[in-house]
Structure formats: structure tokens, C-alpha cells
Specification:
about 190 residues, alpha/beta, six-stranded parallel β-sheet, 8 helices, 6 strands, globular, tRNA-uridine aminocarboxypropyltransferase, DTWD2/TAPT, EC 2.5.1.25, tRNA processing
């Protein structure tokens, strides 16, 4: 009888040994919508397994996350969210040399917009956006809007724009492999290579 991996939760296609260790000093919080925590298709959980300074925190509408407000960390918090008020990562870094604490909304795009609109504490944070021209490889959910990246792809692009090209490529290579394993796992069989 096949055992389910206690770390990744897969039965036929364990991906634990494929997870790269990413040597990035990126300081990151995935502010996760409560609905996202139980979804098998969540990709934020993968980021927390490969980036040493990444943490998953459940979003609370009225209660700011102390880690995200700057009260409990050394680095200025900045929300990664494309908007009229956001600046590019390059512009942000030019204006704020040194490390920053990046906050990524880990949710569907519709949920992420609601999270921002419903939380004045999130609205008060400076906002940045990534400059990605790549198409998303993520096809695990229906009703996806064209041009949007999933949480994992956003974080990989952030790593790239912060100057870690090789690490970003390693992340995306793993992600392509993970997507194949996920599809095979969902079908109930081992991936044949």
C-alpha cells in the first residue's frame, strides 16, 4: 500500500526532493486569504518551503499583521500589488536602498482585490508591482484572467527583479515539474517520465 508523504501530502508523486533551496535574502510575508488555506491548488505554500525568510500569515480584515506593519521587523513593509499607486520594483529600490519586507496577497485575484479594498491598514502601505511579460504556466483553476500570474510565479518574478536570475529560473523549473506532478496526483497515478 502506498503511503501519503507527511511533508507534501502527495501519495504517488512526492515532490519533496525536487524542492530547490533558494539562496535569496528576500524577506517576504504571504498574506493568505482564509479560503486559500484549504485549497489544494494553493501555490503560496510552495514558496514557504523554499525561501528561508518567507512566512504565511492568514489575512484579517481589521486586525493588521504585526509582521506586515513594520512594528515587529527591521525592514520597511511594502505591498506587492499592481495599482495606479504602485511603482516598479526598480523604482522602489532606487528610492529605498537596502532590504524591504515584501507582502504578497495570496488569494485569487478577485479575493486579493477585496482584501485590499476591505483593509485600511493594507491600503496605507506603499505599493510596488512587478514587470513580467511572461505568460502564466498555472492552469489548475478555472476562470483565470489572462495576464495574471499565480502567487508562486509572482514570487519568482520578484526574486528575478531583485537580481537573482538563476534562483528565479530554478524556482520556475521546479514549478513546471510540480504542475505535472500535481496533475498526475489529482488523477490518482504516478507521473511517468
Amino acid at each position: 500500500m502506498t503511503q501519503t508523504c507527511t511533508h507534501c501530502g502527495f501519495t504517488h508523486n512526492c515532490y519533496c526532493e525536487a524542492i530547490p533551496t533558494i539562496a535569496s535574502d528576500l524577506y517576504l510575508t504571504l498574506l493568505t486569504h482564509p479560503n486559500e488555506l484549504g485549497r489544494a491548488t494553493n501555490t503560496g505554500k510552495l514558496i514557504a518551503k523554499m525561501l528561508a525568510q518567507a512566512e504565511i500569515t492568514e489575512w484579517q480584515r481589521k486586525q493588521p499583521c504585526p509582521r506586515c506593519t513594520g512594528e515587529s521587523n527591521l525592514y520597511p513593509p511594502v505591498l506587492l500589488f499592481p495599482s495606479e499607486n504602485s511603482v516598479s520594483i526598480a523604482d522602489w529600490q532606487a528610492q529605498h536602498p537596502g532590504k524591504s519586507h515584501f507582502i504578497v496577497l495570496d488569494a485569487t485575484w478577485q479575493e486579493a482585490k477585496k482584501m485590499l479594498n476591505r483593509s485600511t491598514w493594507l491600503q496605507s502601505l506603499p505599493q510596488v508591482h512587478i514587470e513580467s511579460a511572461q505568460a502564466s504556466q498555472y492552469q489548475l483553476r478555472r476562470n483565470q484572467q489572462g495576464g495574471n500570474l499565480c502567487t508562486f510565479e509572482v514570487c519568482a518574478q520578484l526574486v528575478r527583479e531583485l537580481g537573482d536570475e538563476d534562483e528565479a529560473n530554478a524556482m520556475l523549473t521546479f514549478f513546471n515539474d510540480y504542475l505535472q506532478r500535481f496533475q498526475a496526483e489529482r488523477s490518482g497515478h504516478a507521473l511517468h517520465r
